[in-house]
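Retro notes - structure team

What went well: the batch runner handled both jobs without manual restarts.
What didn't: labels got mixed up in the shared folder, which is why I'm recording both outputs here explicitly, each with its sequence directly above its tokens.

Job 1
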Amino acid sequence: MRIAGAFAAKVFARSAATPYHVVKSMAIAPPERLRVAPPDIRTADPTVADEIYAGYFSFAGKTLQSYGASPFTLTPPSPAWRRALAGFSWLRHLRAADKTLAQANAQALVGDFLALKKLPAEDPAMEPAVVARRLLSFFAQSPVLLDGADADFYDAFMMSLAKSARLIWRALATGQAQGADRALCAIALAEFAVCADTGRKIAPQISRTLSAELDRQILSDGGHISRNPQVAVDLLLDLLPLRQVLAARGLQTPASMLRAVDRMMPTLRMLQHGDGSLALFNGMGATELDRVANVLANEDTRGAAPLKAPYVGYQRLEARDAVVLVEAGGPPPFEFSSSAHAGFLSFEYSLGMERVVVNCGAPAPQHEELREMARATAAHSTLVIDDRSSARIARKDAGRWRAGRILEGPGHVTVERLEAPGATTLSLSHDGYAKSFGLIHARELILAADGMALAGRDRLLAAEGAAAGAAGPDFAVRFHLHPRIRAVELGEAIELQLATGETMIFEADGVWPQIEESIFFAAPGGARKCVQIVLRGKAAPDAELRWSFQRG
């Protein structure tokens, strides 16, 4: 409650300055011309242009056919669909088609939107992040949209740019823009300042705002404060084009932006498996490999991936083709916790191109109803007591300032790393179960130097000041397996069969491992069935389980 109260106080302090910023935002005049258009480094698919021309609009897993009507007047099948439509990121597909017909279609669709009467404030199209995405999309696609445009369209387009900039500025000033959305809004305003001929007057203030958000959100080790790898990818997809237009204009790039980009790239590589996928921690869903590749292609210097990011809270163990990625941090700050998971001390394990042990990951937008389940501790490869999560997450209907955020979680997480000739050992603990059960979860992971074995030990320790008592409820140590992995019981052991033909043996001391059903939320085509290995015991001080994965 204290965290939520402090956050509300911060928002109130921002809103107190609103009149000044409203006046300042009114000084943003519609441009007469654009000086430069930023590139869009997201991958485009020309075939999508054909679908749009045929009246099919597919976003967030939902498809509507317009039957000749404006898609902006249709009843959206979900808020996520409306956000994607109104963000106009899909314009890049029409531009990629490189056809006169596609260009005319793009102008017609944007014209439909510009002709709309004032949208209600509760429309998802008016959310600060959506307005910012629309502004960035319009700038990136302006060469196509303005080529041959008539005077009415041109004037309406320029008016829309200025109106969007005003809305974003006010959203930043009042606190309506929250969390990572604040950086996105600041980037959009910075593009207005660089690309529009009327942006010069606001450039100094916008530069300071962007620098402040980047310094606040990008940690010293390059991780994003939300601890969500996807947020870092999305920010880089917008920061890199901004960096390019600054260079094209001969303007100095803010030092904070240079620091942010230089730090974020290596941390992204640290969180990659051998197949290029990013670890499924804290809101990360299916990796869009083309986007990650496009981002990393802009890295100026490329060395070995870092092995630890202590500020954002991740660790990497690697030996030959074996990689273990470990969640070694606590919950992010309240404001940035809306996508965070209760997966503390969970890990993912891959061999070459094959992911073996995974977390369940975040579901795609069309499966929003599964998000709560995906955020639970049981959806992660870690220890869970009594099927209760190690963090308390507010419900979606908990109110604007609390909904979906972490209200309570581990306050103390320890990490010790030991590099030795024969193996790398990672010793960790968290106190997320101290209040509810009086127990600390301690985990040890040992990766052999030849990459042939991964061993682990999970223990429950008495929390300081906890009363001694009899054995409590059951606990489970879960190892969710990637859908490509086949698990077969072999008496007291389990054989894992990889798609490559390689086999592994999983064993545990003094406990019979069980194979149970699971679900992998982060598959590119939607949720897929998979299995998990589960070890069970009684939750009590000094309870201990040892286990290992051994390659054949």
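Job 2
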Amino acid sequence: MTHEEKLAAIRGLMKQQRIDAYIIPSSDPHISEYLPDRYKCVAWASGFTGSAGTLAITEDFAGLWTDSRYFVQATEQLDGSGYALVKLQVQHAPEYADWLAENLPENAVVAFDGELTSVALANALANKLRPLGIEVRGTVDLLTQLWHNRPILPTAPAYVLEEAITGETTGLKLRRLRDEMKRNRINAHFISSLDDLAWLFNIRGSDVACNPVVLGFGLITATKATLFIDRQKLQREDVVQLNEAGVDLADYADAESALKQQNGVSSMLIDPKRTCFARYDAIPDSISILEQTNPTTYFKAVKNRVEIDHTRNTMVKDGVALTKFFKWLEETVGKEPIAEISLAERLFQFRAEQADFVGESFDTIAAYKVHGALPHYKATPVSSSTLQPDGLLLVDSGGQYRTGTTDITRVISLGQITDPQRTDYTLVLRGMIEGSTAIFPKGTRGYQVDAITRKPLWDHLRNYGHGTGHGVGFFLNVHEGPHVFNTAAVDIPIASGMITSIEPGLYREGNYGIRIENLVLAVDNEQTAFGPFLSFETLTLCYIDTDLVDKTLLDTKHIDWLNQYHATVYQRLAPHLNKEEQNWLAEKTKAI
């Protein structure tokens, strides 16, 4: 079926079941950002492949609500699908609920699949629509009967990481979790989010592209820990290791029935943003439910000493791969054809040469000239441009290593750069340096670092539409909560041990885009009469293109930081490069 035919078929089922509006979120039963193929429902229904978007379908309108990162992509992919792009004003906000409230009559019925909808979203819809006399149904799956040859659940192997990598055993992590449950007077905790499960049970897999996680659920009580998983994915020695840590294994499909049988439990903790409505709905009414962020989300955000040391070493591996890549690119462009789409493959090859490399941490963004203005651009055989020795190239990429996760963006000059491009680039660099060198009191929130980073751009009446930074996992998801550096008033203090990106940008649609990104580690700085202060240690090791820098827009402190950073990059990477590569990097990192 075409996407228009699929839309017509969905509307046909809606009419049969007397549904006035049907919502399809980009999600799965674990409320994941990146999805197994089986749950790419938005892409199947509409053709839109971005990682964030929600479809809302009525009898006479079908829309995709998504944010500014995907406006251009959505416009192209929705052409001829029957769906219209609706631009979100606030990233991730369920603004389609407001639209439904304004456009549906009293006694209308709004439905969604509870397997794909978080508890928080289900509650938001109910709170918005039910007072208006609109019925909300959370148990309606219209896609399964229409989606022929729907992909099965992934069956790739999973494995348990050794303590030498994780720095903490599953047994100790379970003890910390139970202590937190006890403080909250909770005697059971249900976990759906895959990165939380991976951290807690020290387990990794490849069920989701770019994220080393395995599908599962967890149910923790004071005396028992159950991991619901496809047991065929695990080797016998991994099963034994989990059992010795006090973990029982049960079938993945049995999680819902296990919840229904928890009649002896009086209270249960769930994360409403990371638990699907269908699992929540299975919990007996007799159980008191505490809705708050999973404690493991806070635990894993603060890296232990072993994880930090591994991450520092991983940055050397990644920096070596990037140095080889950019050297090859500079020496090859203009001499032989290089397409955007081939850059990701070449960079993957350089990373694959490094020890402990597992795969990409997200799909590489290799964006030349006008494509750089699309923050989440991904080259396709149709869109892929051929590089020439002029203009700007933006490369946003990352690697998954058994010893850490990386995420880095660099913009390089391929030649014939204009003064306005230098100005924009230097202001973005200045912002990145301001954020990276911030010293701040304990208790500072991410939105405050976001403002510090944006100010050099604001001073010149420039801005960018995405957040300044996101948490990064340890050999886990490249986007990790609970903290973020963005404009939202997220009430999560920055803590020593958190790893976060700092990635200001500037985008001129139809012309070029600039983003410079490093990962930083929050560290204790100094105790003063005004309390404890924190600062950042820059982790990423890769040269920043100084050909694009306008020194007149930088203060001495910015120049000193850049020169010192480049000295560190060369010192850390040079021992792992051959003489020719060393000489090339020395030129790229020389003081300005």
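One thing worth noting from job 2: The chain has a mean pLDDT of 96.
We'll revisit the folder naming next retro.
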